[in-house]
Design a protein that fits this description.
Rossmann fold, five-stranded antiparallel beta sheet
Length: 294
């Protein structure tokens, strides 16, 4: 059985470590593990029983090429998550769909590329003193900024982001400074584990490159049920997904992102979860290679 854990040509220094526990777990199950780059034109994708999109963290600047690659690859082998999911999930407009279905999405002002918006007027109309600006196609903290009404730097950042693409503006939730962000990893629709990510002192970004601290956390029943329901509400068959939540002023979880494209599963913090993911991958690969009845 040959399985590709699809990666990128470049990324953070720790990119090679992200899936090391998963690769090891697959090898103990007799799987030949390959880690090709998604944009390597020399790769024969038909040689794999299954291709699992993992650390393709360089796609935001080339989303069209990435989606085209996914569609082409899906014709050669089984791709997970599917090309349809990748097209849907690589632009944050999917949050609109989830909100319409009842998901508690952080309130959002949606701006299209080229829109001319006065940030202070937008924040005043929403009753927000502070907000977060982020690109609709992006990964990690790229393009993310905290802005405040009356500060000119915020307008400059918004103008730059809107000139480059679609943009989200959301209220700044102060709980991120103390409670951080909760990431719930879901494997084939079932809760695997959760990681609490808190920022460094004076920071609001929870990413490790900015000093963020990450630790495994036990989930309460209600949060687990919410994460499971959010994944179900997509209507997609997801091998892997990560539900990112931040608490509002009342302590209620709000959906920041549903990562179904290339989620970091934090297996380095919860290595035993690698067995769970590996078992799911083997099941999917066996299904892909099992002959259909006449």
């Amino acid at each position: 059985m040959h399985v590709a854990l699809v990666t990128a040509a470049s990324g953070p220094d720790f990119i090679a470590e992200v899936d090391a526990p998963l690769a090891a777990a697959l090898r103990t199950r007799g799987v030949e593990v390959h880690e090709p780059r998604w944009d390597d034109t020399a790769v024969d994708w038909g040689a794999f029983d299954l291709a699992v999109v993992r650390t393709t963290w360089d796609y935001p600047g080339r989303r069209k090429a990435f989606v085209a690659w996914a569609e082409s690859t899906a014709e050669r082998t089984r791709l997970l998550n599917s090309a349809d999911v990748l097209r849907w999930n690589t632009h944050k407009s999917y949050l609109l769909e989830l909100e319409e279905r009842g998901a508690p999405v952080v309130p959002t002002a949606w701006l299209g590329r080229g829109d001319e918006v006065v940030l202070d007027d937008l924040l005043a109309s929403r009753g927000w003193d502070r907000a977060v600006v982020k690109p609709a196609v992006g990964a990690g903290a790229s393009g993310l900024a905290r802005v405040r009404r009356g500060e000119p730097g915020g307008q400059d950042h918004l103008d730059a982001e809107v000139a480059a693409g679609d943009v989200l503006v959301q209220p700044y939730l102060p709980a991120v400074e103390t409670r951080g962000e909760l990431s719930v990893v879901v494997v084939e629709g079932e809760i695997s584990h959760a990681v609490r990510k808190t920022p460094d002192d004076g920071e609001f970004r929870i990413h490790e490159e900015f000093g963020g601290r990450h630790h495994v956390e036990d989930l309460d029943v209600d949060t687990a049920a919410l994460a499971r329901w959010i994944v179900e509400s997509t209507g997609h068959d997801l091998l892997l997904a990560r539900v990112d939540l931040i608490e509002d002023e009342l302590g209620q979880p709000q959906l920041v992102e549903l990562e179904a494209t290339e989620p970091d599963l934090y297996l380095r913090l919860h290595p035993e979860a690698a067995d769970r993911v590996a078992d799911a991958i083997v099941r999917r690969a066996e299904d892909a290679t099992r002959p259909t009845s006449a």
